[in-house]
UniProtKB/TrEMBL annotation:
A biological process term (GO) from this entry: system development
Protein name: Cysteine-rich with EGF-like domain protein 2
Disulfide bonds: C128-C137
Coiled-coil annotated residue ranges, if any: none
Start and end residues of each EGF-like domain: 100-138
Record has Disulfide bond as a keyword: yes
UniProt xrefs under SUPFAM superfamilies: Growth factor receptor domain
Positions of transmembrane segments: none
Superkingdom as given in the UniProt entry: Eukaryota
Keywords attached to this entry: Disulfide bond, EGF-like domain
Organism of this sequence: Eumeta variegata
Gene3D superfamilies in the record: Laminin
Length: 206
């Protein structure tokens, strides 16, 4: 609707049409333009979008001419209240149940979304963002570690599991990498130097 909100009648006597016919804002011409562009920006399942738009054509006309397009929410009226295909934001499932909250009143700890949100499907369990896992996305996933800012960060590309950043924090090395040991000297006291071996994953195999 935004794309047509500033439009007007074109061709012929546009001024006469605006005065004597319905204004462009509530005209059938604008409705047709809106219907033609309904699915133009849908990237996935565009065929399904066009099929649904065709099924709902009469409902759209009813909404356009009998409701108040300037104030009524088309999405809520059509998809949630009339067709019962959708749920309000942060709700899911057949009954549009609210997504579960954790102890901090956040959905999935703020690190994911609940399964089926906005639809009549799903079970409300957490779908975690990349790097997180757990019932409330509270843990770091495999090959991620918790940084000083409490966020889960990716391990070094050589690591198969890690407890920090860099190749020297690996639990083990991924295929194609070799565990190397480098001697370093650490000052234990003013008169004693200790020789330690630092292990890290390095030298990627060709």
């Amino acid at each position: 609707m935004d794309k047509t909100s500033r439009g007007k009648f074109e061709g012929g006597d546009a001024a006469w049409e605006e005065t004597n016919l319905k204004s462009y804002a509530r005209s059938e011409i604008r409705l047709v333009e809106i219907q033609e562009g309904l699915c133009s920006e849908v990237n996935n399942h565009q065929d399904s979008c066009y099929s649904l738009a065709e099924q709902a054509e009469q409902l759209l006309e009813m909404w356009w001419f009998k409701q108040a397009p300037d104030t009524a929410d088309l999405y809520s009226w059509l998809c949630i209240d009339t067709l019962h295909y959708c749920c309000p934001k942060l709700h899911y499932g057949e009954l549009c149940s609210p997504c579960p909250l954790d102890k901090d009143n956040k959905i999935c700890g703020g690190r994911g979304k609940c399964h089926g949100e906005g639809t009549r499907k799903g079970n409300g369990t957490c779908i975690c963002n990349k790097g997180y896992k757990g019932s409330n996305c509270e843990d770091c996933d495999k090959n991620f570690y918790r940084g000083s800012d409490t966020k889960c960060k990716a391990c070094h590309k050589a690591c198969e599991g890690c407890n920090g950043g860099g190749p020297n924090a690996c639990y083990s090395c991924k295929s194609g990498w070799i565990l190397e040991a480098v001697p370093v000297q650490v000052l234990a006291s003013t008169s004693v130097l200790l020789a330690l071996m630092i292990h890290f994953c390095g030298v990627e195999c060709a």
